[in-house]
Amino acid sequence: MHPEPDPPLAGYVVIDLSSGIAGAYCTKLLADGGAEVIKVEPPEGDPLRGWSASGAEIPDGADGGLFSFLSCSKRSVIAEPDADDAFVDALLAGAHAVIWSRGPGVAGDGRFAPEVIRQRHPHLTVTAITSFGLEGPWKDKAATEFTLQAWSGGIVGLGRGAPDRAPVYVGGQVGDYLAGAYASAATLASRLRGGAELVDVSKLETAVLGLTYYPVSYYEMLGRPWRDARRLTVPGIALAKDGLIDIGCGTAQQWFDLCAMTGHDDWIDEDSPLSITQQANEKADELYAWVGEQTVDEIRDLATAFRIPNAPVANGANVQGLDHFVARESFVVNPRDGFTQPAHPYRMAPAALRPPEPAPRLGEHTDHYRSLPRNRIPGRESGETAAWNPISRLSAPRTGLPFDGLRVIDMTTFWAGPSCTHLLAMLGADVIHVESTRHPDGTRLIAGIPVTEELWWERSPIFSGLNTNKRGVTLNLQSAEGRELLKRLIATADVVVENFTPRVLESMGLTYDEVKAVRPDVIMVRMPGFGLDGPWRDNPAFAYVIEAAAGISWLTGYPDRNPYEPYSVGDPNAGIHALNALLLALAHRERTGEGSVVEAAMVDAALNVAAEQVIEYSAYGALLQRAGNRGPAAAPQNLYRTNEIDEFGRPDSWVAIAVSTDAQWSGLCDALGRPEWVVSGELATADQRHAHHDLIDRHLSTWCAERTGDEIVSALWAHDVPVAKVLQPHRQTELAQLRSRKFFEPVGHPVNPDTLHSTLPFRFSRGPERVHTTPAPLLGQHNRELLREIGLDDDDVDRLEAEGVIGSAPAR
């Protein structure tokens, strides 16, 4: 028998100076990949050890379920500022990377601030995760997950909610998980060029990319916002006979199929002046009545047969029993505490992830690391490594971008896949985006540009936002010659990424084995919605059904109404997880010379960021519930209307306020002038504030209703209280913090006007200074250039165009 391969990051040493979900999830992903993660804790332990979202009591000496999940396969040491500075410095000297966020213990000591660590240990990748970034006018402002969603525009960005109530945030602290996944990918990208830099991750910027859909580019290019009002998605999440189901209707064809499925062929009007959304809303009552007469399984069987996106609405109690997840073994037992947790967010072979190992008890490994000799720094001239790092040594830092020299065939469409390959392109990879004239990238078709307008398919701000720095080729993959040309391109590439349903590539003969025969060391990243196997594998998957199936939707909305579809996080969350998996496959190839197939299913990534629900239910019997804009970590936490009329002429302007600590409550009391109601003894503790949330809401609503959003933010930030205006997402450029960090860059285009585009949610101290180098490609723009690279001449290219194998306009 062959021994199990080492995981890709074996020998890569990471010091964890973070607290909170973002840092913990970042280091979990690194530990899953095989890194040696050493968590440095204060004597009282990481605050997450005592956390339960349901309020379950954590016995002395035990840890909360979420901590146990996020800390699998890590090591724990105890260190105190002053007393243990030398010990912590020795750990840093023997490591490759450090993950830092503000918190108690060593991380709160200025001698271990990110810039100071970087100066003292210049070989390290120092990844800092903060609310707004390490630089800029807001760098020290108070924030929480909730207020960051408000600042990002994510609370109102996709029209979520109903107009008769306040807009509503995406439940479950998804923004923290997104930030952790970006931090992990950025750390591994830095590793590719030898580390030795500071990585500055902004949670606000990860929220912009994860919870909104390129709203600035959309507004600037088309002169209108993506959404100007809240409205329910129809059918969306609806109540069937025996439970909740999510039914999607994202394209005209899906609307026509929905009409036929419900027995209403008479509703189909291909010449209707109304959008499909408007048509669906007109028929909402009849659609909901039809859903209510069927069972979930009956509707799902029909919708699947009609190729209409659909999923049951999962929660902590039912998700692990859904047949697809049972068949795929999507959940595993926590190795220390025995509750249920999601399996890894991606799968790969022959590269192998580390199976989960028990989370450490507080300080469990302190004596071990204190007893090790303090050796030389890895990567220095001597070539020696620290005593606890016997395997891997980083090469000397190199110039250039992390992915310089990497060639990627990008067979992705819409949002999830292109968001992965876009990050590669922005960091130096040569990304070749493959489309066809019969099936252009779906984001070219969703901007609402009339087909009568010249070059209408080139005017999509969404396609533009996702595809800068790429080259574009069109190939008819239904033809034998198109498939052969694709294989010739693959032979020149390191990576292939695709996000079709599994049957599509299988029908074309483009499985991993076929691709590997062309390029033996290729890394093939497959991003199906529901995975490569299991009963749902061929179901079409859009963000909303992924969010429903994973449980994210369950926590989004008001308790007395059906959940709302987040309609956002499912795609970019899948993209950043796929990038993490690809980086591990690249590390495996460095070590062994082998390629890998990576399965980065959208739903597996979503299950991981919704992990707390199944953990709380299996560990404590607690079913987490949606609570509007309230949440378990803060009280008060809510949206409050200001005295302003919004840009659409409505009294619909709001601020977000969240108080997580006693110090913040005291600051809020000071900002309000300490009126009698706030100084009463019944609000002194967090438990009391949760119990009297209605009272607090009434008073805060009255106070906010007399002020503008700017006045409220100024008053509360002056007292270190987390607060935000609920921003319309196309107004992101007005935020001083994003302007200071140059988060948006102008991009020229041969068809469209110069337009601001979002960049990366992290900054490398070694650059790039500018992210966008070329605009998104026109359809087939690089056909001739790329086909020449694989040996064709101009006559060959002309013939292929005449025969419809390639082209530069959508086929009629």
Description:
The chain is of the alpha/beta class and 812 residues long. It has a domain at 635-721: formyl-coa transferase, domain 3. A hairpin with a 7-residue loop joins strand 22 and strand 23. Helix 6 (174-192) packs across helix 7 (203-211) and helix 21 packs across helix 22 (602-609). It is globular.
Protein traits:
globular; 812 residues; CoA-Trfase_III_dom3_sf; 7-stranded mixed β-sheet; formyl-coa transferase, domain 3; single chain
In short:
The chain has 812 residues and is an alpha/beta fold.
CATH superfamily of one domain: formyl-coa transferase, domain 3
Please count the helical segments. Answer: 30
The CATH topology of one domain is formyl-coa transferase, domain 3
Q: Characterize the main sheet.
A: 7 strands, mixed
Radius of gyration: 26 Å
| Arithmetic mean of pLDDT | 94
Write the layout of secondary structure elements.
Elements: E1 13-17, H1 21-32, E2 36-41, H2 65-70, E3 75-78, H3 85-93, E4 97-100, H4 114-120, E5 125-130, H5 145-152, H6 174-192, E6 197-202, H7 203-211, H8 215-222, E7 236-240, E8 243-247, H9 252-261, H10 276-282, H11 284-292, H12 296-305, E9 310-312, H13 323-328, E10 331-333, E11 340-342, E12 347-349, H14 366-370, E13 407-411, H15 416-426, E14 430-435, H16 461-467, E15 471-474, H17 480-490, E16 495-498, H18 502-508, H19 512-518, E17 523-526, H20 543-550, H21 570-592, E18 596-599, H22 602-609, H23 611-620, E19 637-641, E20 654-658, H24 662-671, H25 686-691, H26 693-704, H27 709-717, E21 723-725, H28 736-740, E22 744-747, E23 755-758, E24 762-764, H29 783-789, H30 794-802
Parallel strand pairs: 1-2, 1-4, 2-3, 4-5, 5-6, 13-14, 13-16, 14-15, 16-17, 17-18
Antiparallel strand pairs: 6-24, 7-8, 8-9, 10-11, 12-18, 19-20, 20-21, 22-23
Helix pairs in contact: 1-6, 5-7, 6-7, 6-21, 8-16, 15-21, 20-22, 21-22
